[in-house]
Amino acid sequence: MDTRMNTFFVSEKISKTRWLPDNLQASERFLTGSWDMPSNFVRLWRLQQNQYADDYNEFVPRCSDKQSFNSDITGIEFVTTDLAVVSSSDGRITIVEIKRAVEDDILQQNAQSDVLHKFNASGDAAPCTAVSVYEREIATVGEDGRLNIISANDVNQIRRTLEADSIALTAVKYVNPNEVLTANRMGVIRMFDTRATEEEVAVTAFMTSCEDERRPNYVSALTSHPTQPHIVLAGSEEGSITVWDLRQPGYPASYLSAHKSAITEIGFHHREPSKLFTASECGELWLWQQQSNMSITSMEKPVAENVNPWLNGERAKNRINVTCLISNLRKSINTFDASGSKLICGSDSEAIYLIDNIY
Amino acid sequence: MQEDQPAIFAVVDPLCSRYANTLTGQFVSGSKIALSAFRPITSNTRDAPTESAGKDDVLIHMLQPEFVFDDPILRSLVAEANSTFVALQELKKRGSKAEYMKISRTYRSIIRACLEKLQDAIASAEEAEDADAQAKYQQYISIFYSIECVWHLSEILFLDPTPSNAVVPQLLDWIRFHFPASERMATDLLLLGREASDNDDYWPALKGLILQGQVDVARALLHLHPQAETPHFKLTDQILKTMPTYSMHGATSIQKFRSLWQYWLTDTERKISANILAIEPNLEELIQLVTGDTQMWNTQIQETEYWYEFFPGYLFYTNNACKHFELGNAANTWLSRWARLKGHNSNELQMKQLDRVILSLMENDMHQVIHAIQLMADNQWFVTHLTDLLYNAGQLQIAGENQVNECIKLRDSLLYDFGSSLMTRNSLWQLGMDYLDHCGQEGQAALALLLTKIPFRTEKQALKIICIAQKKGFFEAEQDICKIQSKKSLDEQRYGNALEWAIRSKDTLYVTTIADFLLNHYSKTGDMLCPDVIANIGAKMFISPRLVFLVKYFDFYQFYRKRDFLPAAELLVNLLESKITPEYFWPSLLIDSIPLLESKDPKILSKETCAILQHLETELVPLIDKKKKRLEKYPDEPINILKDYRIENIEEIINLLRLACARNLSRAIIIENTVMG
User: Fold this and answer.
1) Least CB-CB distance to A213: which of B75, B493, B539?
2) Which residues of chain A lie closer than 8 angstroms to B496, CB-CB?
3) CB atoms within 10 A of CB B588
4) Among A236, B122, B131, B586, which one is most buried in terms of CB atoms within 10 A?
5) How many domains does chain B fold into?
6) Which residues of chain B does A12 touch, with a Cβ-Cβ cutoff of 8 Å?
7) Domains of chain A by range and CATH?
8) How far is residue B236's CA from residue B283's CA, in Å, rounded to a whole number?
9) Close Cβ partners of B80 (under 8 Å, ≥ 6 residues apart)
10) Do B503 and A13 touch (CB under 8 A)?
11) In 3D, which of A284, A295, A228 has the Cα closest to residue A258?
12) Signal peptide span per the entry (chain B) (predicted)?
């Protein structure tokens, strides 16, 4: 594999980055959100052909527009191709709209919610820690342990609010229109049925595996398989990945030890579900690739081949190749997003990295 | 050189100057100073409110040095240089010369890129008619331009010594880089080709090139002249072509070179005095410069702004084989000549800082260089990185008592200061860490302390800091942060969250306190707080016996609520046996056993019943007796014993329990023996 990496220093610690969805061609625009800065911004970038074309930097990102936020950006997800929801650590979500233009794209704020997450005793705002989107529904979780379901059409109308946990929630993910997973700082993942009434919310809970049961191990990242959403992958504080089949959530289907420190984001390639990426706190970015051609002499039974390799338990490792795309960055890679042949990632080193040719 | 005066800052605060008041100050985090009005107090001062108490506002002034790296453009300089800095440390002082040169060039290209961005920023500030921003960026440019200039010269003198130790060719490069005007003109002219000589810039460009020692380019320009084939031009070209140069690699011996040079010089001077070139004054002027003609150079000197502008060129024609150690003398001679011609009295010569640094560098006076570059308004960025680079490359020479030690001390203290100043600037802490990480034990200790001082607002940030503390093995820092988080959660009445943070802190006492709180709350209200957390503690409970008790009791409580009495009874008996029951929980625990004992079909076997009875008599009863005695002794104490239980209630409970045990025992014995039979 011939991958190329370009580094661009942006003077901001990046907490989230997302490609703009583009239906037909490879996306050239992306959003970034910053954290822990004197003033935080969501910026809209566009890749431009490098005028001083050397072999080194084929593309150069240029910031077209920005929106200022007064707290850390904790999540960015797209609702439609031009609308994105941004969650921030003041407990609010904001809908931003991207107006594409030939020259300079425009980023504007469409709506901002009231404080969705707050601590009961003091009434102070609690950070909203993650956001997940299904069609026009938005699920947010916060340090107050609350799960909110909001419609993208009116962010001030909370459709559902659940006291999901008594400790801070770290991640949220829709697995289907009605079921939402939340993960907390103890490593417990719960599944909520958003249709059920308050009394009968049946909760399925399962715990991430950990090398040493006595060590705390929070869920740091959560995702589900794009085509088989019952497969759920969670990255944890110790750097391992635990996989569940939601049809049998009682025990984890696989447990893979990976990075040496917390996994900051875990996610599949937008269009190719055979590729998974993980980023870690110690500055690593790995590509996990399903081996496509099983040899005939393989010991695997034909049945096993139909099973998604992620559910293969110990054998999963034999059917998945791991490639290290970035290593030794030393500063946390907080986020990445892969679309088409390009992957963009943001880091605490105040730079964004563009990796081309991830095929 | 003038002595540096301490800087004086005025603070406007009427209270400070009134009465006998003065000002007091104290360092708060990092380089911040808090100042306030103050009156000196001695042992015989009367302890009374001051006459101004309550009348005037007492002001606290926060002072901190200007910090340039908040600007996004300069911030990216810090971030980029940081990764180069780390790459340098990874060479572990064992890198090759080429590697250190590469690092030095990377640093310089970072500064260059930054200067370019600053130029752009000025342009856009001009467009926006923002005079303040323009002035600010202009100031940054002058700071970082000087830095680049000094860095380049240091690189030449210290990192890239030629085998023969000759410095002139590299000095020419340096000066060409920083005074690029004539080279730029020459490039444009060369593109014009044959028409170049008609241009007004033609002769000034040629002269500029000669003054900078760029003989080859000058010859190329001369060839463009329509009269290039005339004898005069040919002769000039011949003179320039035959000029001997001292090889950087020391292929010719210095004596041989000197005699070659002398021969060529005499020959050329002879030609000039024969007025061969008199009809082409432009050419004659060039050749006079080449021969180092004093009068000619003096005329040129008067047009310069910087003392070092023509110095390398002059050196090139007069002392081509000049070695590094001779440079200082040559520079001083040149400087006094320059000063005299410019009409300065050399004693009171007002040199700009950059001029002085360059002189010190040429004199190889590192003390003075470091002292001077510390005063640059770049928050010590330059001095730290340059010193560190020279140190790593083994080129830092500070004459002290003990050379090696002095260098490492200087370098460490610079890293320490720079690192801690970044660490205390809220969002730059991640970059600051790397500097503290590489300056010995003091740096490590400061890092451990400063990590806990980073103001974090979200748990995510707290977890990030903890991750770092874990990796570095700063157990106390990790524990501190966890405990702060736990305390915060307690204040918010988020008990589950508090408990989890407490478990993370690995502080047994702290965990016990929170577990106690939860048990107490339960025994008072019958309401178990944060059941979801307790249910998931798992193996982490072993950090504190009290937490083990809480978790096990919670399991019992769950079985009981599900009416799963047999495992509930077993757990209860285990708990009774376990010896980890807190004193205040005994009544609660024993009361819990009453319904199990009173069940029609026995849930507790005879042996276990005996055990319960035994605990009742040997643990709870003596406990109560003890409390009773204490009550008799101190009748004023609150009548409650064991927290919420009044003495009368307790005795009733004990009696109830005894009765229940007896009845269960009778039933159990009958059934057990029947089954056995």
Assistant:
1) B539
2) 145, 165-167
3) 22
4) A236
5) 4
6) 72
7) 4-356 (2.130.10.10)
8) 7
9) A9, A351, B110
10) no
11) A284
12) none
Whether B546 and B590 share a structural domain? no
Per-residue pLDDT tens for B247-287? 766 667 778 888 888 898 898 888 888 888 888 888 888 88
Residue type (1 letter), B506: K
CA-based nearest distance A302→chain B, Å: 39
Beta carbons of A213 and B540 less than 8 Å apart: yes
* ipTM for the whole predicted complex goes beyond 0.85: yes
Rounded to the nearest angstrom, the minimum Cα separation between B504 and chain A is: 6
Give Cβ neighbours of residue B137 (< 8 Å, ≥ 6 apart): B73, B118, B121, B122, B125
Judge whether A115 and A91 are in contact, CB under 8 Å: yes
Look up residue B156 and give its two tokens: 């030449």
Return the residue matching tokens 């026995």. Answer: B602
Q: Say how many CA atoms lie within 13 Å of A54 toward its Cβ.
A: 3
> Using beta carbons and an 8 Å cutoff, which residues of B are at the interface with A?
70, 72-73, 75-76, 79-80, 82-83, 86, 426-427, 430-431, 434, 457-461, 463-464, 467, 471, 491-497, 500, 503-504, 529-530, 532-533, 536-540, 542-543
Does B657 map to a domain? yes
pLDDT tens digits, residue range B625-676?
A: 877 777 777 766 555 555 555 566 777 888 888 888 888 888 888 888 886 5
Q: Averaged over B28-32, what is the pLDDT?
A: 76
In a shared domain, residues B569 and B544: no
In DSSP notation, A140-198 reads EEETTSEEEEEETTEEEEEEEEEE--SS-EEEEEEEETTEEEEEETTSEEEEEETTS-S
Tell whether A347 lies on the interface with B, counting CB pairs under 8 A. Answer: no
Select the residue of A36, A72, A166 nearest B530 (Cβ to Cβ).
A166
- Residue from B523, B535, B460 nearest B499 by CA: B535
Q: What is the DSSP letter of B7?
A: P
Model-level pTM? 0.86
Which residue did the predictor score with more confidence, B191 or B502? Answer: B502
Q: CB of A348 within 8 Å of any CB in chain B?
A: yes
Cβ neighbours of residue B518 closer than 8 Å, sequence gap 6 or more: B495, B499, B528, B529, B530, B534, B550
- Name residue B456's amino acid: F
**Cα nearest neighbour of B494 on chain A:** A166
- Residue B93: which region, alpha, beta or left (left: phi > 0; alpha: psi -120 to 50)? left
Nearest to B533 among A71, A186, A330 (CB): A186
CA atoms within 13 A on the CB side of B40: 4
Residue A302: its pLDDT value, please?
Answer: 46
Counting one residue from chain A and one from chain B, the pairs whose CB atoms sit within 8 A come to 122
Are A224 and A178 a contacting pair, CB within 8 Å? Answer: no
Asked if residue B644 and residue B540 are part of one domain, the reply reads no
